[in-house]
Amino acid sequence: MRVFVLTGAGISAESGLKTFRDNDGLWENHRVEDVATPEAFARNPALVQRFYNLRRGALADVAPNPAHVALARLQQALTACGGALTLVTQNVDNLHERGGAADVIHMHGELARVFCVACGFHWDAQCDLTPQSQCPACQTKGGPRPDIVWFGEMPYHMDKIEAALARADLFVSIGTSGAVYPAAGFVQAARERGIQTIELNMEPSHGSLYFDTAHYGPAGTVVPIWVADLMTAIKLDA
Ligand code: APR
Fold this sequence. Notes:
This protein is of the alpha/beta class. It folds into two domains: 2-16 and 64-108 and 155-233, TPP-binding domain (Rossmann fold); 18-61 and 111-148, SIR2/SIRT2 'Small Domain' (2-Layer Sandwich). It has helices at residues 10-13, 32-35, 38-43, 45-58, 66-80, 95-98, 158-167, 186-192, 219-233; strands at residues 2-7, 26-27, 30-31, 84-89, 105-106, 109-116, 122-124, 144-148, 170-174, 196-201, 213-216. A six-stranded parallel β-sheet has the order 5-4-1-9-10-11, sandwiched between helices. A three-stranded antiparallel β-sheet has the order 7-6-8. Helix 5 (66-80) packs parallel to helix 9 (219-233). The longest helix has 15 residues, at 66-80. It is globular. The model has no long low-confidence stretch (mean pLDDT 95). Bound molecules: adenosine-5-diphosphoribose. Adenosine-5-diphosphoribose is lined by residues 8-10, 13-14, 19-22, 90, 108, 175-177, 179-180, 201-203, 205, 218-219.
């Protein structure tokens, strides 16, 4: 069986990371236009770097929750019997990896990565960034920026994502409001291909009418139950 899982901020909420759309349009007390756009970075790089330094630093204070761990367990079990679980996340945290998942596709980038606007070099973030930070590849001062896909930018890995979706038997959306495209459109693409669709979320998302089945509740509870039921149904060993 080939399972395609799309996750959003809701899967990390019980780990203590804030979602995007539950605080009057503010993300950690900032308007997204002030911190999550290329224009904001051009206008005030110090503010944007500081904002992402804080987000990156906060990763050390949080841990994967039972939803991350259950998905990793399902991925390992499916892989062991010749199936697959493609894990695509809109999240920029690293909790899927720390929960044991492999080959996580970060379509909106990663807090733990940096790239240089001058030469395009990507690398692991070793320390905080400032407007004076220098690119290790081309030495441009001020070149390094968070490797985050900001509003108005093209999400990463779309070819790989579309190929995995086309091969899937089951599409599962977890902890996302379905407000941001292209991820919000994956469920319709899955349906058009006749793929079964399941939503696991705290509440019905914007695209809830496109799902064949839904289970509403906190991801830390709902995801492990769904994983256990699926593993029983398709006779996978835990
Ligand atoms: N368990 C399950 N779902 C939850 C939980 C929880 N504990 N807490 C909140 N949710 C649900 C909310 O009900 C909401 O539907 O998670 C969803 C979070 O939605 P958003 O805050 O819109 O996050 P997301 O869908 O990931 O946002 C998509 O928007 O701002 C951009 O690039 C950013 O990747 C982000 C994208």
